[in-house]
Amino acid sequence: MAIAEQHKPNADDMRRSAWMAAAQAGDRTAYETLLRDCVPLIRSVARRQGVAADYVDDVVQEVLLTVHRARQTYDPSRSFNAWLRVIAERRAIDLLRQTGRRGTREVHAPVAFENYADASTDPASGLDRADDAGTIGQALAALPARQREAVQYLVIEEQSLAEAAASTRRSKGSLKVNLHRALKALRGANEREG
Amino acid sequence: MSTSPNSGAPYDRLIQGLAADLKPVRPLPPPLKRALIWLGFVLAAGLILSLIADLSLVGRRLMATPDMWFAMIGSILTAILAAIAAFKLSMPDSSRAWAWLPIPSAVLWVAASGLGCLRGFVLPETYVAPLSETMECLAIILALSVPFSVLMFAMLREAFPLLPGLTAAIAGLAVAAASATLLNLFHPFDAAAVDLLVHAFAVALVIVVSRIIGARTFAKTNFAQQA
Questions:
Q1: Cα dist. B23→A27, B41, B159 in Å?
Q2: Which of B1, B223, B16, B162 is nearest to A44 (CA)?
Q3: How far apart are CA A30 and CA B15, in angstroms?
Q4: Are the CB atoms for B162 and A69 separated by under 8 Å?
Q5: Across chain B, which distance is largest between two alpha carbons, in Å?
Q6: Which chain B residues are Cβ-neighbours of A63 within 8 angstroms?
Q7: Residues 6+ apart with CB under 8 A from B204
Q8: How many angstroms separate the CA atoms of B84 and B88, rounded?
Q9: Nearest to B98 by CA among B173, B200, B47, B189
Q10: What contacts B96, CB < 8 A, 6 or more positions away?
Q11: Subunit contact B7:A26, Cβ cutoff 8 A
Q12: Considering CB atoms only, which of A28, A74, A76 is closest to B19?
């Protein structure tokens, strides 16, 4: 609600407010500058909330995505920093909850992990995997360019749909359709080989 | 705060992607204005329904049982304040304290309705609605809740609530209170115990269903669900 900073906008804040107002009007350069400029503030909020150093990047990424999806909710007459700070705090808390839940389910036991014999391991499986990789590589090469591109970004590079859409300049729908077709084609190729 | 030109370097690909995806947006009107639009729709529905309701019967009932005014004022205030709170909560930077806004009026609404019920025990001649009429009340509350919920959630979706569960529950309270207020037009008798229980069940059902619908409607705002 009321945040002290809101009443005392500094030069940084006013500059960011102006960039955000320009971004709302569709100015990509201002938007890119703003997002880059926000990163240190988001990182500092995340650290202050107690987010571990190796998770700070996750919070930054989520906050940047939230800013993008929620940009219509920003009122240019109000403090941008206050708006961003609350979003960053909420996202940091979300992450802490998520990692806390994961922590209650998982145990960190590296020695036990190293000593556990995987029943499914077979000395010949390395050769099989190499064969499979070769087959998949060939099948991938045979895919149409758009389908190959969808597999490359969404499966191999593990990008999110939004990131892949931005990287390839294609719509999320088109990426989904091409990935679906590619996976179908790869399955078909694998069955023919098998 | 100092700004380094490379501040966003590790996120370059994401930032470039988001910038490439940028489309002009119009800043949302203030939450209060959006709440008034929704309340205007409820008022319009009330005016239309009053054309088919027996207003003289409603008037006689309110004159005969003045404490029912409190229940009605409570439900009207709850609808107004819960709508304002829901639209405030739908903004990503809002304080969760807004959720308290409709609580005092909701207490008044529940307490005054309970008083009506108690009076049913004190005055034996009080008309007690048969089960069929009570079920009619349930049907009216649920039927009115559908259009009110559809509009409410469509409007809330335009924002980006980072407290989705709380926003949805308070939106459900607004919808339930608005529906219960309009029910007064078709409910010309005091709330006896069974009747009150059915009302409470209907209101709770609307809130719970809204909470569930809200969780789905606002799933895009969940952490790590945005892509």
A1: 9, 30, 16
A2: B1
A3: 12
A4: no
A5: 80
A6: none
A7: none
A8: 6
A9: B173
A10: B89, B163, B166
A11: no
A12: A28
**Side-chain half-sphere CA neighbours of B21 within 13 A:** 24
Q: What single-letter amino acid sits at B120?
A: G
Locate tokens 């029943």: which residue?
A119
Q: A63 with A88: CB under 8 angstroms? A: yes
Q: Are B157 and B23 in contact (CB under 8 A)?
A: no
* Alpha-carbon gap, residue B176 to B159, rounded angstroms: 22
CA distances (Å), B153 to each of A167, B163, B164, B174, in order? Answer: 33, 14, 11, 11
Assigned token pair, B143: 């039927």
Phi, psi of A170 (to 5 degrees): -115, 160
Radius of gyration, CA atoms only, chain B:
22
Kindly report, residue by residue over B100-149, the tens digit of the pLDDT: 999 999 999 888 877 766 665 555 555 555 666 667 777 888 888 899 99
Residue type, A52: A
Give the tokens for residue A185. 């084609």
| pTM for the whole structure | 0.70
Portion 31-90 of B in contact with A at CB < 8 A: none
Partner A, chain B 122-181, Cβ-Cβ below 8 Å: 158-160, 162-163
pLDDT tens for residues A152-161?
888 888 888 8
Domains located in chain A, CATH noted: 4-105 (1.10.1740.10), 126-193 (1.10.10.10)
Question: Using a CB-CB distance cutoff of 8 angstroms, which residues of chain B are in contact with residue A37?
Answer: 3, 7-8
pLDDT confidence of residue A97: 87
Tell me which amino acid residue A95 is: L
- pLDDT at position B2: 41
Cα→Cα distances A112→A105, A118, A119, A120, Å: 16, 12, 15, 17
A83 vs B113, more confident: A83
User: What's the mean pLDDT in B32-37?
Assistant: 96
Q: Give, in order, the Cα–Cα distances in Å from B217 to each of A181, B27, B84, B86, B165.
A: 29, 21, 19, 14, 10
Give residues with Cβ within 8 angstroms of A96, minimum separation 6: A49, A50, A51
